[in-house]
Amino acid sequence: MLYRLNKFIGKSSKTGPAEEPSANAQLLERAGFVFKYASGLYEYLPFGLAVLKKIENIIRKNLNALSCQEVLMTSLQPKGLWRKTGRWDDMAGVMYQFKDHSGKDFGLSMTHEEPITQMAARAINSYKDLPFCAYQIQTKHRDESRAKSGVIRGREFIMKDAYSFHASQEDFEKFYAVMTDIYQNIFKECGLDSLVVEAPGGSFSKVNSHEFQVLSPAGEDKILFCDKCQKAFNRDLFGAEDTPKCLVCGGELIEKVGIEVGNIFQLGTKYSAMLGCEFTDSDGKKQPVIMGCYGIGVSRLLGTIVEVSHDDKGMIWPASVAPAVAQVMVLSEDDGTKKLAEQFLAQAEKSGLALVYDDRDVSAGVKLAEADLLGLPYRVVVSEKNAGQIEIKKRTDTNTKLVDLAEVLAILNVES
Amino acid sequence: MLYRLNKFIGKSSKTGPAEEPSANAQLLERAGFVFKYASGLYEYLPFGLAVLKKIENIIRKNLNALSCQEVLMTSLQPKGLWRKTGRWDDMAGVMYQFKDHSGKDFGLSMTHEEPITQMAARAINSYKDLPFCAYQIQTKHRDESRAKSGVIRGREFIMKDAYSFHASQEDFEKFYAVMTDIYQNIFKECGLDSLVVEAPGGSFSKVNSHEFQVLSPAGEDKILFCDKCQKAFNRDLFGAEDTPKCLVCGGELIEKVGIEVGNIFQLGTKYSAMLGCEFTDSDGKKQPVIMGCYGIGVSRLLGTIVEVSHDDKGMIWPASVAPAVAQVMVLSEDDGTKKLAEQFLAQAEKSGLALVYDDRDVSAGVKLAEADLLGLPYRVVVSEKNAGQIEIKKRTDTNTKLVDLAEVLAILNVES
């Protein structure tokens, strides 16, 4: 994939969105990755979309390895099922709800427990059909009155939601523990260190959910961290307590701020009992299925990576999610230089490398600044000054290196 | 990718949706590819989603080869831009429109001329920035009062919409002709023969759009075809005329019925003039950009393929879009047979083949019927009867073949 910056719809600009001070809102828009269409509504330009797809594929790879099954449910939700669980009214504050032209009620989903439970019910008869886990990567909507923090909190966003179905609490707990590890792998592959945080999540026990928090001053969540036993807790678990102590070891807690990039919940039989998702156990008795639910904010991850990985010149993309491995520029018009550049581009394309080629008619200074702003892992400069060699520089290094064409390709192939 | 039918959320069933007689509605649901959630709302189970993704990737490959740039716009649309073009009111009959909790007006997009024109305007200054084409593959909504024909006409559906931007009508026309060919390639790769049909599309000339029709009795469109010059016309072009003649050669016209799988439009400067999408020409004068628009119904293609490619036993998937290349079953429990099956599955997985493995505890007859219903290109049977060889059968053949393991893999690798 070769992205040419000339005639490109994702052009960079000097300014970010007004009234959006967060680094991700500013840098993603300045670099032409996204465009703020309206409050909480972001459009994805080619680079932004390329990062989203790489994040999605990291998630897919990890979940498919666990034999999770990918599905796609609808965002348009008739009232029916949601009324059965009481969530049509409960969600009224955050769910867009409206009538179609014939007067029927619809909402836009922000989560899918109801439809997935109905879908699973069709596939489950006996305990032999369990366990399984299904997920989707889908656009969700939320009627946010105070959308902010760029793509971190939007009115329309991309989420991965997964739901698991089990015949016993023990089987569920095993899977929940595996998913906890898989989640940390996924964030790690996206270049993020995450903290598993105990959190309240419902009605049937104090701690029945976990959040995955990436520490960042741009976050909205307060986390209390125990230096002694390394456990972390959502501040909300402690109500109005002034100086809460660690719930596990009683140690002192340190307050940190994080961005919640994922969460996992024990649902128990809440939805399965209400919606008739049952299995026949080995004694021939009907039982409601035990469920878990597992979310990752895909577009939110894009913003989080920018929050934790940038400097004053621009973004710094981890190779795993960068829209391309290198930014290429040709800094002279003589025939030898152009020929070397063409050779490089042709061979890079052959080996499947994704590159950004700055073929705009602008100065070297503008191109160098653009490369820093976009923050791809490498910058490659072909210039007549370098006498047949090619200059390569890591975004995170200050030094450049002069190497021959074969070595540039070798370096880029390792990183992509 | 190995899909195991045991513990699978996409189980087949004996019945299709009530009141949906079309082949795609019946077969896709019976085979567990989709689930009709409500009128015009279909959920995609793993096989249905796998086909959608293959169709999407065929489209992407063809458009990327033309240097089209992929973006992603929002489905939630504030009223603002749509009011400027007059389409907020024009679309009121088919666009879901509602207010958020603060009273602001939003609609759910079914097309994106307004936002893409605004997005392009930011990237365009001079004629040197033109031409380019951007596209997205996105979920759209339409308030259909009579949703029918399975996934062919839905209230929520997946569409590829592309928009091109040009400095001259001549440049636009060249691109439009190229896109016409690319569209036919795309449908061909999906296993469909399409007819290019001249159609009315707007206000500034009689024929200013083209439809791509796949002939099928399940279609809703009447097409008049000229046997003499091979041109085809949408019936609507002729108003109330009783016996219309070919608009090109005056020949007799034959009526045919088709499913519209794509359409392309000349937009001229309609949107660019209203929304200020201008370029500076070589004389330094401001001009509105000339635009084209190009749609493909992605989920509709899924249904169309089933309409034209099935028999009384089930679906018949072209290899290019089949969710997997073969359905595998093991018809005995003895150790040698099981070992051979394991060898086959392991080697197939290694070479990246996608397979459906019917590991359910059901009879051979049920498994064979399932394979016909799902309609993958090949059926592979490992049975002790076959003394170390493996039985392979094409879905479209009646004969089976006994070959060794290496040959089965070779056959499947060619087709996938």
TrEMBL record, chains A, B:
GO CC: one term?
cytosol
Q: Which reaction does it catalyse?
A: tRNA(Pro) + L-proline + ATP = L-prolyl-tRNA(Pro) + AMP + diphosphate
Aminoacyl-transfer RNA synthetases class-II family profile domain residues = 40-318
Task: Give its E.C. classification number.
Answer: 6.1.1.15
Q: Which GO terms describe its molecular function?
A: ATP binding; proline-tRNA ligase activity
Q: Which PROSITE patterns match?
A: AA_TRNA_LIGASE_II
Give the InterPro entries listed for this entry.
aa-tRNA-synt_IIb (IPR002314), aa-tRNA-synth_II (IPR006195), aa-tRNA-synth_II/BPL/LPL (IPR045864), Anticodon-bd (IPR004154), Anticodon-bd_dom_sf (IPR036621), Pro-tRNA-ligase_IIa (IPR002316), Pro-tRNA_synthetase (IPR050062), ProRS_core_prok (IPR033730)
Q: Pfam families of this UniProt entry? A: HGTP_anticodon (PF03129), tRNA-synt_2b (PF00587)
A single Gene Ontology biological process assigned to it is: prolyl-tRNA aminoacylation
Please identify the protein, giving its name as recorded: Proline--tRNA ligase
Q: Which organism is it from?
A: candidate division CPR1 bacterium GW2011_GWA2_42_17
